[in-house]
């Protein structure tokens, strides 16, 4: 194992994973470890497959090669009922929030509790209000999802993700769409959830500063490969061009801002097919 | 001259191949879609038990299907019945048989127009709304979110809606027929002077419970099954974008209409063939 994280202490381990969409290879034989009780961040340019990785871990997509195990279970070998039992212990915060539009904020947070427990309604109410208080939106309980801003929806979704007190949470871009104040609050929230509830957290994000502030370990992925990994301070010192470019946000370097295209000048000067 | 023929042949040949290629591809997509649809139906049916344990899910859906369709079914039933009263009267009075107007109106409604028109209206109103609802839930990741919360979206979302459609259809068809019969009576007895007692008594004497009413109910259950299946599957199978959902909604209405009318012919031939 060339990995610096001890595998026996990892809750989730991804081994030699390959995955493609159509002809496009999204992951090419990558291995990642996510240590118990820690916050591990996955960073990388848009479209590298960060969301895809979370869906693979959640068992919604199947790898072409390699294995993913969560708490000792090979996710893609489980029977359906076993997978569902495992998912009850995995919280996931979708990039879009994915709140159920037909019900109020309160009912959304209560949804997993009502589906999976037989708690009396009074207890559910208490739990829901506690979770909403934790994300600072107890006052929004009677709103419908279409009355929320994008940032609020994400926080409600977080309250819902922790409703069943899971062992881990996967955050897909938690910071985008948050104003600086709630961004700061959210950073603290993720940190304290992780410490108080002894959660294992995976954060997928582009926000270098926020993520580096709370992550214990960072993987930088690009074009299907891990191009850098280590503690935040190691990553900042990294000599890899890829990682430097990503951390400093330079538009050009090994990672290109532009989608592959023919030469710009040629493209502008050519008359285009319609007239040619 | 020869060369010209040859070239023409070649063109024809290419066109033919392109046509066959197109046909083959289309057939294959239709069959794979049918396969997916069948699998979806089986999954939906396998959720019935879990819905019966939580009947509230079902009642909520029946309520919303009913609310969506009630007004359109009532108004359409009334007008269809009134038109039947008029047309029936013109024909029957030529033979001096206007006393049997009630039989004609009721039989047409109970056997055919009730189940068929109510199902078409259901597909256009409630069916398209179901497709849009499910398609949007898919596009906004609500279905995948539910899966990640270890809740099976088919059992929790699809099956209750399917059962609601299936069970509402006979009720809506019955409502349509009942209102239509009243509409026929209003025109026939109220406006055109058919004897009101005869309208009702002839109807009672000549309608057969088994042949007419039960068969009508069977038809509407079959239509409810097919229309709900198509609506839910199109939503679930939609390309998860706004354009994909709007296309799926259109397909629901078109495919349901074809299926309902085609099945109506088959069912009618089976049920009423031997008289
Ligand atoms: N359903 C799909 N069908 C085909 N290709 C897909 C699908 N979903 C995603 N992709 C492709 O997979 C690649 C990775 O997508 P993914 O959503 O995982 O990226 P991401 O890293 O989360 O990007 P972002 O930071 O913008 O959210 C993209 O190139 C995308 O085009
Ligand atoms: Mg993403």
Labels describing this entry:
heterodimer, A: 276 residues, alpha/beta, Rossmann fold, four-stranded antiparallel sheet, 10 helices, 10 strands, disordered N terminus, B: 275 residues, mainly alpha, 9 helices, 0% strand, binds adenosine-5'-triphosphate, binds magnesium ion
Provide a descriptive summary of the structure in words:
The complex is a heterodimer of chains A (276) and B (275). Chain A has one domain (3-251): P-loop containing nucleotide triphosphate hydrolases (Rossmann fold, 3-Layer(aba) Sandwich), CATH 3.40.50. Chain A is 36% helix and 23% strand. Chain A has ten helices and ten strands. In chain A, the strands form two sheets. Chain A has a six-stranded mixed sheet, with helices on both faces. Chain A has a four-stranded antiparallel sheet with strand order 2-1-4-5, with helices on one face. In chain A, helix 3 packs across helix 4 and helix 3 runs parallel beside helix 5. Chain B has one domain. The A-B interface holds A 55, 58, 60, 84-85, 87-88, 90, 92, 94-96, 98-101, 111-112, 115-116, 157, 160 and B 136-137, 140-142, 144-152, 156. Residues 21, 26, 46-52, 95 of chain A line the site of adenosine-5'-triphosphate (ATP). Adenosine-5'-triphosphate is lined by residues 21, 26, 46-52, 95 of chain A.
């Amino acid at each position: 194992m060339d990995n610096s994280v001890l595998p026996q202490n990892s809750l989730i381990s991804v081994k030699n994973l390959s995955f493609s969409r159509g002809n496009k290879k999204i992951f090419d034989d990558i291995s990642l470890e996510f240590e118990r009780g820690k916050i591990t961040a996955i960073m990388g340019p848009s479209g590298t497959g960060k969301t895809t990785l979370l869906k693979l871990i959640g068992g919604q997509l199947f790898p072409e090669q390699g294995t993913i195990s969560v708490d000792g279970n090979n996710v893609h070998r489980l029977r359906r009922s076993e997978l569902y039992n495992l998912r009850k212990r995995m919280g996931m915060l979708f990039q879009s929030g994915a709140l159920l539009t037909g019900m109020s904020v309160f009912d959304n947070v209560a949804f997993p509790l009502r589906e999976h427990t037989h708690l009396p309604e009074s207890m559910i109410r208490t739990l829901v209000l506690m979770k909403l208080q934790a994300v600072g939106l107890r006052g929004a309980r009677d709103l419908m999802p279409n009355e929320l801003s994008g940032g609020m929806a994400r926080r409600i979704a977080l309250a819902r993700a922790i409703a069943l007190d899971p062992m881990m949470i996967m955050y897909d871009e938690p910071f985008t769409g948050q104003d600086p104040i709630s961004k700061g609050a959210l950073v603290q929230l993720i940190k304290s959830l992780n410490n108080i509830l002894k959660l294992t957290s995976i954060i997928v994000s582009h926000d270098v500063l926020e993520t580096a502030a709370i992550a214990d370990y960072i993987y930088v992925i690009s074009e299907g490969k891990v191009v850098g990994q280590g503690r935040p301070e190691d990553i900042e010192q990294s000599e890899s061009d890829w990682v430097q470019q990503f951390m400093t946000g330079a538009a050009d370097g090994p990672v290109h801002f532009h989608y592959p295209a023919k030469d710009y000048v040629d493209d502008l000067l050519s008359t285009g097919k319609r007239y040619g | 001259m020869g060369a010209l023929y040859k070239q023409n042949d070649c063109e024809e040949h290419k066109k033919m191949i392109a046509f066959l290629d197109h046909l083959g591809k289309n057939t294959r997509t239709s069959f794979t879609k049918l396969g997916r649809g069948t699998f979806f139906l089986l999954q939906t049916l396998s959720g019935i038990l879990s819905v019966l344990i939580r009947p509230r899910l079902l009642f909520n859906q029946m309520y919303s299907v009913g609310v969506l369709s009630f007004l359109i079914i009532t108004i359409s039933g009334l007008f269809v019945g009134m038109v039947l009263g008029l047309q029936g009267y013109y024909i029957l009075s030529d033979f001096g048989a206007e006393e049997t107007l009630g039989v004609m109106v009721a039989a047409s409604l109970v056997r055919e127009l009730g189940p068929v028109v109510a199902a078409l209206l259901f597909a256009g109103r409630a069916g398209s709304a179901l497709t849009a609802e499910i398609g949007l839930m898919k596009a906004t990741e609500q279905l995948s979110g539910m899966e990640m919360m270890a809740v099976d979206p088919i059992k929790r979302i699809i099956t209750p809606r399917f059962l609601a459609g299936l069970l509402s259809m006979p009720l809506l068809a019955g409502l349509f027929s009942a209102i239509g019969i009243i509409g026929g009576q209003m025109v026939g007895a109220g406006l055109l002077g058919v004897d009101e007692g005869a309208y009702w008594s002839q109807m009672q004497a000549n309608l057969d419970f088994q042949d007419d009413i039960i068969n009508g109910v069977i038809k509407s259950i079959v239509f409810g099954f097919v229309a709900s299946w198509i609506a839910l599957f199109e939503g679930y199978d939609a390309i998860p974008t706004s354009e994909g959902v709007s296309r799926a909604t259109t397909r629901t209405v078109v495919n349901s209409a074809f299926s309902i009318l085609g099945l109506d012919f088959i069912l009618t031939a089976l049920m009423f063939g031997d008289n």
